[in-house]
Amino acid sequence: MNDRHARAYFLPSNGLGEAGMSESREALAAYSQAVRLRPDYAEAYHNRGNVSSNLGQYEEAVADYDRAVHLKPDLVDAYINRANAKAALQQYQDAIEDLGTAIRFDAENVFAFLNRGLLLAELGEYGDALVDLDEAVRLEPDYERAYLVRGSVKRGLGRSPEAIADFDSAIVLNPDNSEAYNSRGLLQVELGRYEAAVADYGNAIRLRPEYGAAYNNRGVALAKLGRLGAAVSDYDEAVRLLPESAEPYFNRGNAKERRGDYEDAIADYDQVIVRRPTDLEAHRNRAVVKAVLGWTEEARSDFDRALEIAAGR
Q1: CATH number for the domain formed by residue range(s) 1-106
Q2: Domain extents for the chain?
Q3: C-alpha to C-alpha distances, 134 to 89, 129, 187, nearest whole angstrom
């Protein structure tokens, strides 16, 4: 990815490592000194805002971006990055307005269209989202991220053939994009193409060996094929990599239940309920397994709790 592509467009959720945090704090001090020495230096406020965003200090970042665009109203990147910070603060409509302003100043900015498309899709405005994502693809047809995002939106709309085509394009443009393989795998499962999904998840894991979601997703596809032992192995790895997530525990419990490992299944459903106390399916499944084991009173308790959850209590 070149320097243009490296500009922020929704900050990575995994944040910075220890070294990155240290360097960012040093940069923060340097930009703070710059604005003290020259209070009219818009780029310094903008850059300090970027550092604050990288540190997860979004309110401070927004304040710096405000100052930057006050001093230099046509600083397009400041609007885009302020939108990113506002999105992190769940100020979605304000973020969309910022991206609209960026587009008015620069009608060929792929990141503004891409980010606005993402936000519109998050808000359920899929038609408008696709208009923006189509424009992002038109502006930069060799940028795999635009195809990946558009494919995900089309998948959500049930436009499966078009979504597959977008994921295919993303992979052709960047065969090392693990996210593209994982996304295509999700769609393959929805279409009942389980072997193809297993292959896609395998490629995602090959490219990113610590990709917990891909292990979980491959487990789902393997379970659909009846390969429960292999599925449980993948869920084991997903649990190791995503210990706070309820999903791998639920899926592993389901696979163990199917192969008759009832007490182990209960242990997994226990972990789901710790993480998601109102999970209806986990309570119901645990009740069924307890009933199979003859644990009548415990099963009844779980069934009763499932009924309460279903009733919204």
Answers
A1: 1.25.40.10
A2: 1-106, 261-313
A3: 27, 9, 20
